[in-house]
Specification:
It is built from four helices and seven strands. By secondary structure, the chain is of the alpha+beta class. A hairpin with a 5-residue loop joins β1 and β2.
């Protein structure tokens, strides 16, 4: 059954992690778990201060060349009546503000990320150079196995 719109909205505001799917330069799929926060209709995912590989991240490189992406939120349970998933098809943009503290849109995104993730009190939301992914939903689709799945959300 379809996830109700209000449930999908609540998940986009509260679910802690999603799997971001992009496409590499040779057409290969690339999936990586990401944190994100919603501000208005846009989702924001930072290149934050957690340890990462040196250089430009694959997801950033991929989205520079192909802005089409997808974000998957899901829940698995041994009780299959509690299964659900939510897919957001996106147009993405790599956002590199020269002065993040002077950009109101970036400041709102950083505030939303700090509000959602207490870990950002100890880890920088943005590492240098400041880079965020601006993720604009094109379509949102959700499914759940039963009303039991909805009631636990």
């Amino acid at each position: 059954m379809r996830l109700p719109a209000e449930t999908m909205d609540r998940l986009l505001d509260t679910w802690p992690v999603g799997i971001l799917a992009s496409v590499g330069s040779q057409g290969q799929p690339h999936q990586v778990p990401v944190v994100f926060a919603r501000v208005g209709s846009r989702l924001w995912s930072p290149v934050d201060g957690k340890p990462k590989a040196a250089g430009e991240l694959g997801r950033v490189r991929n989205l520079r060349s192909n802005p089409r992406a997808s974000l998957l939120l899901d829940h698995y349970d041994e009780d299959w009546t509690r299964l659900w998933w939510l897919r957001v098809d996106l147009n993405a943009r790599v956002f590199e503000p020269p002065d993040p503290d002077a950009d109101p849109e970036v400041m709102a995104a950083v505030a939303a990320l700090r509000g959602k993730y207490p870990q950002y009190h100890d880890i920088p939301v943005l590492r240098a150079p400041a880079t965020l992914l601006a993720l604009d939903p094109v379509a949102v689709t959700g499914w759940c196995a039963s009303r039991d799945a909805i009631s636990m959300l």
